[in-house]
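Hey,
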Amino acid sequence: MNFIPFIVTKNHIKVLCVLFLLLFFNMQINAQLKKNPKELQLRIAAAENDSQKVDLQLLLSAYYLNKDHEYKVDLDQAEAINKQARQLSTRLHYKNGIGKSILLDAQITREKGDSKNGLKKAQEILAYSQKNNLTELQADAYLELAMYGESLEQRIKYKEMALPILKKIGAIEKQADVTKEIGELYLMNDNPEKGLTILKESLVLYKSIKFPHLQGVYNLFSDGYTHTGNFEDALKYALLAEKTALKLRDSSLQLSAIYNHVGMAYLNLQKKNNAAEYFYKGLEIAKKHKSTDYVRVIGDNLCSVFILQKKGNDALKILKEMQVNYPSYDEERQIKENYLFLGIYRVLNNNEKATVYYNKLVAYYGKNAEKKAENRLPILRSFVRYHYQLKNYNELYPLLHRLDSLATTAKNTIMLSDNYLIWFKADSSRGKYLDAIKHYQLHKNILDSIYKGETNRQINSLQVQYESNKKDKNIELLKQQAKVQQIQIQKDNVVKYVFIGSVLVLILILGLLYNSFRLKKKKNEALEIQRQQINEQNELNKKMLIEKEWLLKEIHHRVKNNLQIVISLLNTQSAYLDNEDALMAIQNSQHRMHAMSLIHQKLYQSDNLSNIDMSWYIYELINYMKECYDTDGKINFVLEIENTCLDVAQAVPLGLIINEAISNAIKYAFPLDRKGEIFISFKNSERDNYQLIISDNGVGLPENFNHAERDSLGMNLMTGLSAQIDGTFEMKNDNGLKIKITFNRNTEFETVVEDSEITSVKQ
């Protein structure tokens, strides 16, 4: 591992992510605008009514806005057509047309570089969509506002605000797109674990609608696993992205990004020839699309591979070709080129030219590369290599210590391993064999942890070599002693026999040591075979566990679908009934089944197959009740829910209790359109003891009411379900009706809850 590519630093991965995000966003828009402009113009002329004409004009304006390699004339054309659509929509009082026109105006203004006015228009469309109850347009407004976010966190926030709206209107593909974009933003924000989790959610959504163009999502998975150091999965998803793209005959710039990720995955796995092959493929596509940014990024990676392979002339040829045909003059580009030139001339053993570029980097960074924190590790590594090649040990060792500290802090295991390898070579050159062995062992241990290598046979070999050197020195010492003893042997035969005996004993000891070494080596080989067998069995068990988890998710999915079918059947049956009590019973049954359906829906959508997040569940259940009974403007819901997970055996009864209590409160607590408030609290009172409180400020229970004697299904359900979870059920008047259930949480399937804070929501 002689060279680490400059482009794998976090700053440059972020640049590539931004390029890919913009590329994927534009590709999605262009995929929606396949209409030929001439065809759209003909359809506008033949429109049956003015509203249809407005919609077609907006499509034509969006076509010119999102053209590849757009020019000022395209933006002007988009603006003029959008203005016509706005005027016609205003005359018709066509609210949807007006809203879409304002949104297009914001996008055109942003594309022209006027972000300040673009932001104002984006805020205007948000206010307009909220005022006129244009739900989908409101989601589009949040997505447009995300384009102006000053930070990645702000952009994520706006996109997350659009998600519930898209989910509500059933726009699954758009919901999947936005979920994918949020996952990518988390990757760019150095949170790959969160990003990968959200990307998995987007993949589920895409697959639910059998969306074929998944190459972009797989490419992001590859990028995320590269961030986490899981290079095997990074390669797996990069190759899956390539396979999907080729199957769909995707020859767009996105394929260049995919080839680049495959190349990076191979490079991180030390498959240099495979990496070079894919970088070449990606470079050709980037050149075909005349994308300077992609050409420079992939070209830098290809240069890095050539430096790793000691092909300095090939790397020099590529770099100079990029300078001539794809010039870039910003400071960051100059630093990249100086870094690559230093590596190239070092590989070519042209120390004079290497020194020139070393001095340029020192002038920019300083000798310890502290000027730019995100770049200091690769620069420090290049300084270490440079000083090692020139045998400048006084300069080298302080840098080795500094790089060791920084790489350990940054948890950059590849850089740390490379540093130990250089350290080993430097120690070996200076005859410091014990230190050399120590640093080589550290280097090999890291490589084994990253690449899952076999054993430390190279370390054992080095240990044998060290022992042999030590024995050679002992033998030389014995020879010198023998010369002295040969002088004395003539005078003292006794001394001669003692000397001969000593040599024989020494030879015997050496023979015993050698035999012990052979036995230990055989034992280690046997242990290694046993370890491999255990690993194979573990992999088999892991696959069986994954398959069982999948089957369990499928069961929950089918249970949820069956409940939905029963709900639909009840709904159909209600159409044939005139009896109000029967209709009410069917409706109550539908609500109860939906409460159970939510449980199974959450289980098959999450990785946790035993526990339910009650904060999410109660929130979703209340939203469903609000929609069913249309309580907006009449009843406010106040939620104080602690983030807690319960197993299914307790979550289902609690859900049914909440359903019954809320239904009764909505129906009976606020007669004659009386306004009021329903309070739902779910908190941990002590250790595993929890309280569920549902209260309202309505009319309450009539005097002398005895719920124990009340013969109603709802009341029997609540008391029976409370007993089912070994809880206590209390109901009393307290400025309205108050129901309290106290129970102990089942900890048999205990899971870790990341956030135990109480979530308070007023709806």
